[in-house]
Amino acid sequence: MKKNKLKKTVSVIKRKNIYYLTNDKNRIKEFKPWLGDIFSFLYDRIMEKSIFPKKFGGDINKHFELLRK
Predict the structure, then answer these.
(1) pTM score, whole prediction
(2) Which of 46, 51, 53, 68 is the most buried (most CB within 10 A)?
(3) Where are the chain's structural domains?
């Protein structure tokens, strides 16, 4: 387990090839879901009506195909 200091109260450790942030007591920090997680079910509906896929030549069917993979 390798430990790197980011600042006085936060460090990074590596366990089983996964990096974790730890607090000053060497416990892995836990994060609550961000507000975006609450609205994630709306993402596809919003994106299919959004101007960005049209502007960049996006295709909602290609989007769904990529998400399925």
Answers:
(1) 0.37
(2) 53
(3) 1-29, 32-69
pLDDT in tens, the chain (69 residues): 555 555 667 788 888 888 888 887 888 887 776 766 777 788 777 777 776 666 677 777 877 888 888
CA distances from 14 to 3, 4, 5, 34 (A): 7, 9, 12, 24
Q: Is 6 helix (H, G, I), strand (E, B) or coil?
A: strand
61-67 contacts: CB < 8 A, separation 24 or more?
A: none
Contact between 10 and 29 (Cβ < 8 Å): yes
